[in-house]
Amino acid sequence: MTSWDGVEAGPGRRGEFAFRLGHRELGHLHGDHAAHFSFPRERWEELAAEGRITEHPVFPGKHGPAARRIADEADVDDVIALMRINYDAALERRAA
Q: Does 52 fall in a domain?
């Protein structure tokens, strides 16, 4: 993801490893077993219905914060795709 224009990566405030475009976080990793994101409510519901994300453990019942378990290479690929959704949305916001 750091090969995407403008993306920086590094440690976050709570021990996570975050990926950012400017001040906007695209998502972050907790080791090699979990990824967390935030999506607009409508997008969150779409991704959850597809089985790609679940509720964030710190915010149960809230549609926006999201989690994704990482168990295999297919999960890694989808985590990258989910971060790309946030990256593309952030670029759109910058252009507007």
A: yes
Tell me the pTM: 0.93
As a whole number of angstroms, the distance between CA 28 and CA 46 comes to: 20
Distance CA 72, CA 90 (A): 27
Q: Is 65 left (phi over 0), alpha (psi -120 to 50) or beta?
A: beta
In a domain, 76, yes or no: yes
The parent domain of residue 26 ranges over 7-95
Element (H, E) at 25: strand 24-30
Residues 26-53: tens digit of each pLDDT = 999 999 999 999 999 999 999 999 999 9
